């Protein structure tokens, strides 16, 4: 390697080090800053240096309005029917070259695709917006230290905030129902802490000597380019149990025919099979209580009791309970009760009891 090559290589390393020490920011030079550039002119007359001259130019950096909103994470928020304070999270960044207030609003869809290739089918309720408080609770997680807001106050250039959209889920929602929400941030004038600034106005016409305002934002999920706003979607997807019940009866015996072709006559013993099924792909149902009042013309068979947690076969809407029961129920106030700890998606469990026709 020649000396010249070594010298150029060393210079390149120094240049890269300098670039690494001064990373670029999205905001750029602060709006309202002045940039002064002075040129100097030296000359001679008759070989004698003369008094030189100079000239300066000063310009004012205009204000570029630009911001982004992005969903935190890449998946839907899974919720259950009736759940409250369910959270979707967004990051809001002021990429302008000036401080701004950022107005916040939430819109709900009516149909069409949500954020995750699914279709909106319902609206959440009690929708609110909170700003994450990084000095209390857990950073990036919704908790009691976060502030209820309608705008972000005095957001510096390049500063970001985590914003939570918090809502309640109506009780009567089917499995895989989707509620899509869109968070929009809109730039507003800054300059007064504690109150939302006025709407921004883009400078029209030729460049002025003062600080002009230029809208430079891209189009978001629902807003257009160069509107001083940006929007992003997220959604809630319901994970619900889809329970169904079938109650069937079969004759066990009667006092005349006994167990050979018994008939439904007084004194006959009837076995009732109650099958509780949860549709495939549904959330697991828990703490399931089955109650069945005994009609006046039946007498509960206490010798058989109440048996739970068995399996059944279902054909043409008729359930036939198997004998593999592992739990017991109760009989009180002429009402049979059985509890199933859980029924998973695609699973069926049973409650079985017997009675005699009066």
Automatic annotation (TrEMBL):
<dbReference type="InterPro" id="IPR047589">
    <property type="entry name" value="DUF11_rpt"/>
</dbReference>
<protein>
    <recommendedName>
        <fullName>DUF11 domain-containing protein</fullName>
    </recommendedName>
</protein>
<dbReference type="InterPro" id="IPR001434">
    <property type="entry name" value="OmcB-like_DUF11"/>
</dbReference>
<feature type="domain" description="DUF11">
    <location>
        <begin position="259"/>
        <end position="346"/>
    </location>
</feature>
<dbReference type="Pfam" id="PF01345">
    <property type="entry name" value="DUF11"/>
</dbReference>
<keyword id="KW-0732">Signal</keyword>
<feature type="signal peptide">
    <location>
        <begin position="1"/>
        <end position="26"/>
    </location>
</feature>
């Amino acid at each position: 390697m020649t000396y010249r090559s070594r010298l150029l290589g060393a210079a390149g390393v120094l240049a890269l080090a300098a670039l690494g020490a001064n990373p670029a920011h999205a905001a750029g030079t602060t709006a309202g800053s002045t940039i002064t550039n002075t040129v100097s002119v030296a000359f001679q007359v008759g070989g004698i240096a003369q008094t030189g001259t100079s000239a300066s130019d000063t310009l004012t950096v205009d204000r570029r309005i630009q911001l982004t909103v992005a969903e935190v994470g890449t998946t839907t928020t899974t919720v259950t029917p009736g759940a409250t304070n369910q959270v979707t999270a967004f990051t809001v960044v002021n990429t302008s070259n000036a401080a701004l207030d950022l107005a916040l609003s939430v819109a709900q869809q009516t149909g069409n695709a949500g954020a995750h290739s699914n279709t909106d089918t319902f609206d959440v309720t009690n929708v609110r917006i909170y700003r994450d408080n990084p000095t209390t609770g857990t950073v990036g997680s919704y908790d009691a230290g976060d502030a209820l807001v309608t705008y972000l106050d005095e957001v510096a250039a390049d500063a970001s905030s985590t914003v939570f959209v918090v809502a309640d889920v109506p009780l009567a929602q089917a499995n895989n129902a989707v509620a899509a929400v869109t968070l929009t941030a809109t730039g507003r004038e800054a300059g007064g802490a504690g109150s939302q600034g006025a709407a921004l106005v883009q400078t029209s016409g030729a460049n002025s000597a003062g600080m002009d305002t230029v809208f430079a934002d891209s189009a978001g999920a629902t807003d257009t380019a160069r509107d001083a706003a940006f929007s992003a979607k997220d959604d809630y997807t319901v994970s619900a149990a889809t329970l169904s019940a079938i109650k069937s009866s079969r004759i066990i015996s009667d006092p005349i025919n006994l167990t050979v072709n018994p008939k439904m006559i007084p004194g006959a013993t009837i076995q009732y099979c109650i099958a509780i099924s949860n549709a495939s792909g549904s959330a697991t149902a828990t703490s399931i209580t089955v109650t069945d009042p005994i009609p006046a013309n039946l007498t509960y068979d206490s010798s058989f009791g109440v048996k739970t947690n068995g399996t059944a076969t279902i054909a043409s809407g008729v359930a036939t309970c198997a004998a593999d029961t592992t739990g017991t129920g109760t009989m009180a106030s002429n009402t049979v009760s059985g509890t199933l700890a859980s029924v998973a998606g695609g699973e069926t469990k049973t409650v079985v009891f017997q009675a005699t026709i009066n």
